[in-house]
Specification:
Length: 151
């Protein structure tokens, strides 16, 4: 039994033990490589997280700038619209005033024409009456003047 044990120890020592040590060394190297890869992945994740946070911060800053510019443009458009509306209102008022002034002038011209026609009628009647009777002509003039004041 002692010889069997010695042969077994010799065989294991010669071929089994080195294989076992090689397997353990290989397994230890694989575990160490896996740990290094995990550490490297952690560092890469930290870097990516920081990079993503920087990109997010820049995107927020760009969004804020776009909103600020849009608000400025909206205010500018509102001011332009107010100015245009005010200018149009002023133009409409000016046109209305001009139309009123034109109508006033036309009414004055019509009134003058009517007065001229009335004066011509009076003169015509006066001349006809003058030729026929002096007393009658004075009565006609008074009557026509009185009627002219009433209208």
């Amino acid at each position: 039994m002692l010889v069997s044990f010695a042969v077994l120890v010799f065989i294991l020592g010669k071929w089994g033990w080195p294989m076992l040590l090689n397997a353990l060394t290989k397994r230890e190297k694989e575990i160490e490589d896996s740990l290094n890869a995990a550490q490297k992945a952690r560092e890469e994740m930290k870097h990516l997280t920081a990079h993503n946070e920087e990109i997010l911060r820049q995107a927020k800053a760009e969004r804020d700038e776009i909103i600020r510019i849009a608000n400025l443009r909206a205010e500018s458009i509102a001011e332009e619209t107010k100015a245009k509306a005010s200018a149009e209102a002023d133009a409409i008022i000016a046109k209305a005033r001009q139309d009123i002034e034109n109508e006033k002038k036309r009414a004055i011209v019509d009134l003058r024409n009517e007065i001229a026609n009335l004066s011509i009628d009076i003169a015509q009647r006066l001349i006809q009456s003058e030729l026929s009777d002096r007393e009658k002509s004075n009565a006609i003039i008074d009557k026509e003047l009185h009627e002219a004041h009433l209208n």
